[in-house]
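[Automated response] Your request has been received and processed.

Submitted sequence:
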Amino acid sequence: MSIISDSDLQDLVQQIVQRTLGSGNVISSTTSTINPAGHEPDLTLVEPQPHVATVNTVALGADHGGFSLKENLKTFLLKQGYKVDDCGTYSPDSVDYPDFAYAVAKKVSEGDAWRGIIIDGAGIGSCMVANKVRGVRAAMCYDHTTALNSREHNNANVLTLGAGLIFPTLARQIVLTWLNTIFAGGRHARRVDKITMIERRQVS
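Generated structure:
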């Protein structure tokens, strides 16, 4: 797999920023989206909207198992021009992954970060935690294909990684692919809308 150049990456980031600010972050029109009961939804489904100052901010968190990879990715992201909001942990001492997964997911849910990345030993537990937070669509990715699919088809806004499953070089490639892949919309928007409607019914 070829590594994207710095100049190409900056162009992609700029496109993403323009798309985000220009679209108002609406996933899709709801006029053609039908819920399982056969009724049109009564609310426009809107993404958690980052503040303008945080459009390029990535919330980053890890437990002790993901601490080393978090530090590696933090340096990498800063070099790529992203702002990093480090949610901890800040040492390899034993901690509980739900605390840090929730901290990252909350930043994304409340619009204080554009995207979130969480790392633990396998990536599974943190993914479960993040998906409990309203407005978050977390995806555990382990290669280029899953990173691409989670963004293009599912509009994932949180990425989880398993530090015990992938090497740092692959993790950096996954992160670049994930951050630079634009949601495809179309039929995928209709399906993401339905995820959002299920979420709303569960919390209402």
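Summary generated for your ticket: Residues 6-23 form the longest helix (18 residues). The chain has one domain: 49-203.
If you did not submit this request, please reply to this message.
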